[in-house]
Design brief:
29% of the residues lie in helices and 23% in strands. By secondary structure, it is of the alpha/beta class. The termini are far apart.
Length: 180
Amino acid sequence: MNNLTLFEVSSWRKKNFKNFLSDKANVIMFICNHCPYVKHINDELVILSKEFIKKGISFIAINSNDIKKYPEDSPENMKKTHLYIGYPFPYFFDETQEVAKYYGVKYTPEFFIFSGFGKLYYNGQFDNSRPGNNIPVTGYDIRYVLEKVHNNINIDYPIIKPSYGCSIKWKTSNYDSKLE
């Protein structure tokens, strides 16, 4: 997957995924514009990512949703969101949805943390906060793993905490759309 080329919305160009990877660790996140769960964590996501980008950890956001059904998630709107929110990381559009399928993503937001060598350290949620549950947004689950990585504390096996949010909006085949 490292040689993958995706459309990066802030530059309006296709760029090679591997040019954004760090030797230390990489946070690959699946987000989108319309999801209230993503909107709920955006402010803390920006704070957390700025903190760890300074420590040599890369962050890469990917939107894999079907934009015909969810036009708010179009590349044009992604660029607006990228600028408005002030994401300090690249935001890619996965038009073919191949990247989401490769990672087995089910929800937005969903996070993966890999070592610089590609070892999976974490897959799952940002933290336990959800819209309306009155738990503060802290990024605890992501921060816990990134602190270990930054402090060179070994992570022997992947930490898995199920994501919770909006389902990926998959494209349907012509056959499927005839059934709707």
